[in-house]
Amino acid sequence: MARGEKDIVQVSVKAEESDIITESTSQKYFADFHALLTKPSCREVAVQGPRRDNKAEAIKDCEILRKTFENEGELGVKRIAESLRTKASDAPVSTPEALESIYNAMRPVAAPERLIPPGEGWVRFNDEMLWEPRSEVYFAQKGAQMGKYLMKDAKTNQFSTVDSPHQSVDAPVAVRAAGTNILRSGSKLDRTVLLPELKKIARLALKFPLSFLDSPASAYALFQGVRSAEAADWCAKNFHLKLLPLLAKKIHAWKSEELQRLMESVLSDLDSEVLKSAAAFSGSSAVLALLLGDRLFISAVGQFRVVLLYDDQSSRELMKGVDLAQDAERIEEAKGHLRKDMLIRVPDSESNDAERVLMARNPFQVLQMEPNGLDEKQVRTQYRKVALKVHPDKQTEDAQSFKKAFARLDGAKEVLESLCSADKASVLELHQTLQAEVHTREGAAALLGVDSTPTTETEHLVEEAAKASRMGIKKLEKLEHLVRAEYDLAVATYKEAVETLRRPSSKEALARQEALRLQPLPMGRALGCRDMRFPAALVVMRPESVSWQVQRGVRVALLCGATASLTDQQLLKSSTSFKRCPKASALRWCQELQSNSVVAACLRCEAKGEEGQGAKSSGGPLAKKQKTTQGGGRSIFLRHILFKHQQLRVLDPAARREGAARGAHEAETTALQVLQRLLVEPNAFVKLCREHSDCASAEQPGTLAGHMGWVARNEQEPPMEEAAFALGLNEFGDLVVTSRGVHVIQRIG
């Protein structure tokens, strides 16, 4: 430690002679260190160095003692003096570098400080390393690999170095999002989920950080039910539990291709869970969007469209789902059929003879064989009967379908003729297996010979069913090389029967769940819809993905289900007035359709810092002088019109009356109409506020009607704060939904 300027330090060399002078004795020299310390109290420190044979060595001791006192103080100089005395027999030094090395060698070695890696989530692995458990990256704090990031090979158990973690970048973009569901009848909604702050949600919900992601980090999801809303509802509640852990598995920079694959894997994980659940016959279209920094990644399946809407009224389709016409060839190969833009799995009353042949699931169904044994005469007889119905020469319409049916009839005849010489018991087993309706609990239980009673505890039943399935497959082994395609189909049928019995079900819900399989589908790609996926893949879960560099002044329309049918012109025309209002835009798009359940979302992309830079309304009131809070933060002056509805559960002491709307959708619809009028007639605010607002502020005198007053950050609910502080002076904001109801807001100061 360095001493104060007032400390008096003297270091000198003194000589000492022996009392008896002989030839073997000589004069000795030693360093004499003397310090007068003035703080904290006045005292003296005196230290003597070792006896040296020559004066030069004693002078070097003086320099060491002085340097030590300057750096370490009294205790240090006493320690060094003792060390010098014990090393008095060492070879003398003659250079400044050698003197410095002596001093450094005598200094106590402090334990090196441990290096700290950037980011959060590191835990102690051992004394030398930290570990990031989700990404399985190690950081060496000391030792030979100190400062390096490592990963362990699972096979060799050896460490190898990897790149440093990604340093989060705060991109100069601001994205506001809103979604809308409209349900015109029924009790369940298809779901829209908006997660504007992924890092915060990961910390609160899953107890781990995502500090290596770029900011802003947000996720958005739309799920539109197919057949019913169960699958969509389950996916909406669980998709973040699939997404966040996958994002946490990597602390290095994400490439665009990697993030697109990650989004697709989220959809695959959701699909896998739905297929195992009681909602297996339900289905869903889905759109997932992930914003990281200034990159937007979208993955979707089913009926969907993603469209970019620019402020100059131009548009660009970013991606679109595969429709049935584009998927027709694949569906036909899987023995499906399209009728009136719908996909059906089994023939119905409208099916003609050719369609019945083409939709038959196996050769036995093609020839309409009875399960009473098989011989060549029976095969020829059935062939002639069906051939008379589907021969293309006798058809005047849809001749192409009949040609395909006749070709399939010939193929089925060959397969069955080859089975006539096979083991009769195996053929009968094959016939019964292929005819079984294994998507119903009763059909699966009949095939496997187990109990068909619905139950939520299926473990014991599945063991019994799996054993019966193995035995049934073994009975078919003799046919494996004779009719391989039919053998494979039978094996898949047995496995599907086991999965049917594995799914938990209650007696009350089973009939409704199984009835869903009879409903046709409007698409050939979706989540769920198990009966259309196994054992024949009429429907596939094959998502599409895209990435987009965020641009300012753009709305991104996320359309799922029925709203995917809206044209670019409809999207632009219906929402021209709401360019900076994502909630109002999404609501207008949903209102364009009369479907029972519709869903849409809108993302508004702007440059960061454009918040509060919106267009100013020339017809608004005079601007009030801006205030600041005690901490110096900005505050704004707001007024609003409140629309309450009967589904609100929070008591509102500031309300002047109960809302007339029965539900949130009705309140939003009325609010949208008022907002649209205000954008045309801004001076009508006071009149409309007194007429429509359910807040007591509407009764304030004169132009004070609807005034909320000065509002600062953290004083309002998050939706209100986000929308309000994005407004320019005198600008009307987006529809805002809070615990009080639906608000139309305007910033006037």
Automatic annotation (TrEMBL):
Catalyzed reaction equations: [protein]-peptidylproline (omega=180) = [protein]-peptidylproline (omega=0)
Chain ranges of the PpiC domain: 633-749
SMART domains: DnaJ
Class of the enzyme per the UniProt entry, highest EC level: isomerase
UniProt keywords, alphabetically: Isomerase, Rotamase
Domain J: 362-421
Disordered, as annotated region: 611-630
EC number: 5.2.1.8
Protein name in UniProt: peptidylprolyl isomerase
Species of provenance: Durusdinium trenchii
Organism lineage string: Eukaryota, Sar, Alveolata, Dinophyceae, Suessiales
